[in-house]
């Protein structure tokens, strides 16, 4: 197997603002694994708060020696080796994992969801994200998202009620709320969550700082809406620790090191009667289509990262009438457009 990789810069259609930061671009690294005439594609996306960069991913990938393996189907052996090379580097590890899964699907000419025995008809609706912005821009973004049946609204910027009221002035679709650790007081958080429940909000993602474990457990116990862990949740070992602290988890391939561990996370969370959300960073259709292979197994999907950019290099999973729609292409279900 031969591994190739290169940096790429994603251009956002609109400035993307969450509690604490704004950006117009996202750095990624695109990977390819070639074996017996087939090529699997992967991707690492590095929004600044993850602590990874193109340089750190390129440095990590330069240490990966896939030539020592002669069978790409030995995923446990290969990905355990990749994971052991260094601490952290989760997005870097994910881009190898995604490319390997794409490769083995192509080698057997089958979509991953079929290899896993997953029914593609059970895909959920996906939300479309509305970042923190002025009321005028929020209205514009909300109108642009009129083909979606659910929206995800970023809060935590100090004008939370105005954000929701502005969205509600345009649409009555269900809303997911993501605070990105933007609230600090658990009782004030509970007050606004009661108000959010009256506005058609379905759950609240990471309202308090990830270090506020006791306060998050109190909020979860008293909240009328499910409380979902995002920044606090990273790898498989975190699932059991969050039983009772959060109602559920947000799995992202760039945090979980890829599809192999994400699949295990879903199984463990279900065994613990926790809700499961499948999310993303700003990504091309490569990583989004990879995550979408698992989407029929989860409660909620927020897989819109490719729709927020203007320079995608792949085509893959589509949103049809608001619903994730998987195709029958092998592997992760993508084709290369350019670049």
Automatic annotation (TrEMBL):
Q: Which SMART domains match?
A: MR_MLE
* EC number(s) from the headed UniProt entry: 5.1.1.-
Q: Which Gene3D superfamilies match?
A: Enolase-like C-terminal domain, Enolase-like, N-terminal domain
Give yes or no: UniProt keyword Metal-binding: yes
**Pfam families xref list:** MR_MLE_C, MR_MLE_N
**Gene Ontology MF: a single term:** metal ion binding
Question: What note does UniProt attach to the cofactor annotation?
Answer: Binds 1 Mg(2+) ion per subunit.
- Keyword set, alphabetical order: Isomerase, Magnesium, Metal-binding
Sequence similarity: Belongs to the mandelate racemase/muconate lactonizing enzyme family.
**Name under which the protein is recorded:** Dipeptide epimerase
Please name the source species.
Allorhodopirellula heiligendammensis
Species lineage, top-down?
Bacteria, Pseudomonadati, Planctomycetota, Planctomycetia, Pirellulales
Q: Gene name?
A: ycjG_1
């Amino acid at each position: 197997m031969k591994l190739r990789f290169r940096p790429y810069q994603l251009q956002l259609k609109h400035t993307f603002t969450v509690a604490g930061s704004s950006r117009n671009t996202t750095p990624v690294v695109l990977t390819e694994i070639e074996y017996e005439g087939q090529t699997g594609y992967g991707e690492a996306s590095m929004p600044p708060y993850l602590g990874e960069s193109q340089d750190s991913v390129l440095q990590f990938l330069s240490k990966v020696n896939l030539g020592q393996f002669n069978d790409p189907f030995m995923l446990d052996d290969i990905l355990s080796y990749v994971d052991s090379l260094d601490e952290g580097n989760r997005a870097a590890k994910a881009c190898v994992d995604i490319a390997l899964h794409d490769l083995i699907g192509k080698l057997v000419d089958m979509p991953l969801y079929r290899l896993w025995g997953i029914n593609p008809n059970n895909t959920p609706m996906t939300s479309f994200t509305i970042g923190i912005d002025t009321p005028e821009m929020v209205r514009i973004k909300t109108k642009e998202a009129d083909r979606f049946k659910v929206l995800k609204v970023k809060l935590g910027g100090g004008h939370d009620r105005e954000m929701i009221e502005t969205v509600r002035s345009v649409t009555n679709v269900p809303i997911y709320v993501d605070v990105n650790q933007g609230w600090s007081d658990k009782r004030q958080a509970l007050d606004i969550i009661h108000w959010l429940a009256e506005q058609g909000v379905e759950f609240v993602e990471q309202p308090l700082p990830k270090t506020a474990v006791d306060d998050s457990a109190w909020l979860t116990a008293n909240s009328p809406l499910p409380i979902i862990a995002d920044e606090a949740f990273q790898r498989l070992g975190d699932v059991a620790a969050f039983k009772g602290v959060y109602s559920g988890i947000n799995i992202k391939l760039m945090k979980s090191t890829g599809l192999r561990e994400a699949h295990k996370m879903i199984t463990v969370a279900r065994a613990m009667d926790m809700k499961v959300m499948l999310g993303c960073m700003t990504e091309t259709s490569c990583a989004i289509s990879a995550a979408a292979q698992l989407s029929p197994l989860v409660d909620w999907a927020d897989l819109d990262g490719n729709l927020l950019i203007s320079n995608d290099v792949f085509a893959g999973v589509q949103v049809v009438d608001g619903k994730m729609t998987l195709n029958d292409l092998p592997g992760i279900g993508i084709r290369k457009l350019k670049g």
